[in-house]
Amino acid sequence: MITGFSKSPGQRGPQHESYEEKYERRCKKHESLLRRNNRTTCRLTGKEAKEPAQNPRQKEFFRRRNLTIEELGRTKMMLPPGKRGTLFPVNCSDNLEKIPPQTYLNYLPNIQPHTKSIQHNFSNIFPLSKSSQAMLVMDVPKNCKGTQTTKELTSEKKNSCQQTDCGTAVLDKEIIQLSNYLNEALHRELVLKQKMVILQELLAMLLEAAEKSWKGQFNEDKLKCRLSVLENQLQICTQNYSKRGLKRILLEMEDQKQNYEQKVKESLQKLLEEKTQAQKEFQNAQRALTVAADDCSLWKDQLDNLKKDWSQLTDQHSEVKNKLHVLENKLQWSDTQNSQLQQALKDMENERANLYSRINNLQEENILIMEYLDEVEGKLQTEKNQKLILEATTEHLQKQIVTVPNEVLSWVTSKQNVQSEDQGEKESSLREELQKRTSQLAAKKKEVKSVLISVIN
């Protein structure tokens, strides 16, 4: 090995240092460079950051909150020079909360356009020293003294309120509390934006450092290979070899070259095979993906169809439910009708039994009436026979009138007249009774016929 090309220890690390140790040493050096304060000659310590011009929107924001901050430039000038225009440490996220809010405002003057409205309430959110509190001077206009009160007047104006454009009264205490909440939210937004900016810078620096380290590693490996080749060539050139030795060395080098080429070819062949295999797998994966996409589309179509079928089934189910309710109502109505019909049938059966019993009674009465009529007809026949006998006797007596004296004749005629009158009265009474019985019998027959017709129907 040739040691004449080695550099001093200040320029490069020790020769026995490995690549990992060298990488760790460089990372530590890079981190130490990142942690130090970014003070350069181009940044003057006494140079003030220009205040952003207030646009009409900011002025309206300040006017609605009745806030004015004066001597902001004076407060910035009174800050220590080490805290103006300096960057925060990179990996100190926990220390960001300990830094005073004035430094946030000086560090990021252009992130938040309304930082002036936030600065007046930082003393309530972050505890500041007396000197920093004395830096801020509040100036409230005379026509707006009702909204912001000092600590001495809070006890006197606890219940004071203001009227909005809508006519609703709002307490000053609520307005102050709302302004505090808004200021706190704005401050948190400012801190988050600041952290995001720092993280973006860190990410850019890390990406750049990674790219540089990768390129440096690659260049270092190339230089190492180049140096090893040159050292071997120099070692071969410095040594005195014979022709046979040189031939043997050349042959060995040729063999090594061929072996190396063979190994390279094999590795390239393996790489090509792996590439083709990967391409095949990729094609298979693409095919599987297309098949899966087709299956997914089919499943989606089936899902849509199932959803439609499900909606139709739900509609049909609701219709069937409605029909079932209608049928249940009809069934209840039919049950009630059936019960009513059964009750009516029972009533009809009872009425039929009553009618049958009445028919039997009427038939018995009819039989009795017929028997009575037969008896009356028999009596009439006997009466007729007696009348014929009487007529025969009267004729016989008329023949004997000639011989009988006139007195006897008158007595007989009077007696005969009396008997004829009695017989006529009896016959008339019997005829009347017979007519009554016949009329009653006809009425009974009609009634029986009507009952039979109703029972048959």
From TrEMBL:
Start-end of Basic and acidic residues biased regions: 14-34, 45-58, 423-436
Coiled-coil stretches: 243-393
Claim: Coiled coil is one of the keywords in the record: yes
Official protein name in the record: TRAF3-interacting JNK-activating modulator
InterPro entries in the record: Cent_Immune-Sig_Mod
Region feature (Disordered): 1-58, 416-441
Keyword set, alphabetical order: Coiled coil
Keyword Magnesium set for record: no
Annotated transmembrane regions: none
PANTHER family referenced in this protein's UniProt entry, alphabetically: CENTROSOMAL PROTEIN OF 170 KDA (PTHR15715), TRAF3-INTERACTING JNK-ACTIVATING MODULATOR (PTHR15715:SF21)
